Each structure stands twice: as structure tokens, then as C-alpha cells.
User: What shape does this take?
Amino acid sequence: MDGARLYVNLKTYQNDMTTFNGRDDILALLIHLGYLGFEGDEEEGRINSEEGEVFIPNCEIMEVFKTSTEENEWEGTFKTFELSKDLLKATWEKKEEKIAKILERFRNQTGNNTYNDEAALSYAIQLAYYVAQKYYTTVLELDTGKGYANVVYLPAPKYSDKPALLIELKYEKNADTAIAQIKRQEYPERLLHYKGNLLLIGINYDKDVDSKSPDFKRHTCVIEEA
Assistant: This one.
């Protein structure tokens, strides 16, 4: 919307309005609907019709984009998305306190009944890490031979530089206990290919924590490298 262009690959588009496997498929649909212009790359003197750049073609359509994105109903969605990005970045940087604070903000968006056991906590954590889907494949309850790791994020080949994330959750215990369980039951042994680029993450939620302090947190987090 600032006049720039975006690269797009149209090869995966299924020519329907229901199958979307990524950003490019959505951009392809907008091209077919006339909301975006497309200019193919030139290869050996000919235009490649499957790869190129998309752009907003005229002022009238620009107004449509402005109107659709200025609606107040999207504000909360955008803020949640940005918060999830901050959470993932803090995880990569191993900032335990920041992770706990961000998880607290996600928790404040839900009712108390949402956090009533470890399974509910798992769903909440997956929601908080929503943007991780761009970089990772999510594996729930990974069988490690000696137990089940609650949530594991395995980096996609395109993002192999990102660390694998092994998350163990505890409810009304502590984050150190989660890390101890990971080590005791040798969860990382199932992820040998990620050794040296693996983060062990223990997250605990304590619903009965003393709330007298203005900066109290129900979440705690501990991270170790493996």
C-alpha cells in the first residue's frame, strides 16, 4: 500500500477460492479478482507467467485496500499478531522474563476458565505462538520413547537456521520442573538432528500466585540450549 511491489510465485495456486497453502496463493486469488496487478519476470527474452511481482494497479483499488484495513474490527487481530511475533522473537533470543510477560498478556485476553489444566494451557500456548507456523512444523505430544513432549516446533527446510523448540508445560508446579523432566526422560534424544540448534523451554502456569504485587505473573519460563 506504500507503492512497493511484492514477489509472488503462482505455481501452487489451485485456481479455486477455497484452497490456500500460503501467502502466494492468496495474492494469486487477488490477481484473478482484479485487486492486484501482476508483472511476470523476464526469462531468456520471454515473460514468465508464473513468477513475478504484484502491485496495487490504480487509485480506485488503493482506496478499497485503505477502507478494508482501516476498519476498527481488525485492530485487535493486528495487535495479537504483532504480540505473537514478539513472543517468537523473545524465544529465539532466550528472554525468559519477556516471554512470561507476553504470555501473561495473552492470558489476559481469555477467561479464567480457559486455564484450568495442562491441556488447556497447551492450546493457549499454541495460540500464542501462532506466527511460528511460518517457520515451523508443529508436532503435539511427540513420542520420545520415555514420554511425550507437549509441543515441538521443527524448523522448515527454508528456515533451517532457526532453532527447534521443545516446549514442556506444567500447571501449578514450576518451569524448572519442566526442564528437569525434559532431561530426565531424554526428550532431546529424539531430536538428534537438531543438536546444537535446539531450545528446551519449560513453561509453568500458577493460578494461585500471590496477586498483591502490581507486576505479578502467573507464567514463568526457563530456557536452555541443547
